[in-house]
Design brief:
Helices cover 33% and strands 30% of the residues. By secondary structure, the protein is of the alpha/beta class. The protein has a single domain, classed as P-loop containing nucleotide triphosphate hydrolases (Rossmann fold), CATH 3.40.50. The strands form 2 sheets. Strands 6-7-8-3-9-10 form a 6-stranded mixed beta sheet. A 4-stranded antiparallel beta sheet has the order 2-1-4-5, covered by helices on one side. It is globular and about 50 Å long. Its EC number is 2.7.8.37.
Length: 237
């Protein structure tokens, strides 16, 4: 298998300006390789730094040190730590998806419009985009009665299902999953698992963080544990 992502000595610290510039370590000395088509799962207690790793890859956070070398279809081999904002925006648009427990959308955009716009942005025709959006919303058990509603009125589980639909519908090259089954019922978890398996078969590589270890072990190829900001493990399932 060929490398898609190589993280070497990644570090992220936060400066607390209200506390005499105190430094808090989000993650430190993080190194691992993600191969094409592989799914790496990361476990650890709350506050261990799992989300910090994902947000550093997505560049929501700018790392303090280290490198994240990603093989991009648009830019070739690129260090996401050093990449420009223009490059990051282009990579997010077409290559990297991110699923969070939290959903931030424009207040007057419906669920269907949100997913449809994601597809149009990557080049799908309008009519095709609408049909694909309806299909994936149904897959994630979001009732059709909510498709024309504003997501700000949704429950936590409904927002997460919409977030999954929006990220997965463009079938990204790399998908980052931050607690993808939080607040989901069993039927919705099955829908998530089915989509993960489908995307893996189509070549999507993934990194996910989990508290639901039983679910994680059914989908990942390799596991790491994050403790006190540092990574250990790397055993295969």
């Amino acid at each position: 298998m060929s490398e898609l992502l190589k993280i070497d000595d990644l570090k992220k610290t936060f400066t607390m300006h209200q506390s005499d510039n105190k430094h808090i370590v989000g993650c430190n000395r993080i190194s691992f390789i993600l191969n094409e088509g592989e799914f790496i799962g990361i476990t650890g207690r709350s506050g261990a730094g799992k989300s910090t790793v994902l947000k550093s890859i997505y560049r929501t956070y700018i790392p303090t040190g280290g490198s994240i070398v990603y093989r991009s279809e648009q830019f070739g081999s690129i260090d996401l730590v050093q990449a420009t904002e223009r490059e990051i925006i282009a990579i997010r648009k077409k290559e990297i998806g991110y699923v969070s427990q939290f959903l931030n959308v424009m207040p007057r955009v419906t669920a269907l419009e949100l997913v449809t716009a994601t597809l149009i942005e990557i080049g799908e025709r309008s009519n095709d985009a609408v049909e694909q959006a309806k299909h994936i919303l149904a897959h994630f058990k979001l009732p059709s009665s909510l498709w024309d509603s504003y997501p700000r009125t949704f429950s936590g589980g409904e927002k997460l299902r919409l977030n999954l639909a929006q990220a997965m519908v463009k079938r990204p090259k790399l998908l980052l999953l931050d607690e993808p089954t939080a607040s989901l019922d069993e039927a919705s978890k099955i829908a998530v698992k089915d989509m993960i398996i489908q995307l893996k078969e189509e070549g999507t590589s993934m990194i996910g963080i989990f508290h639901d270890l039983d679910f994680m072990e059914t989908v990942v190829d390799c596991q790491y544990n994050l403790s006190n900001g540092s990574l250990s493990g790397g055993h295969s399932n």
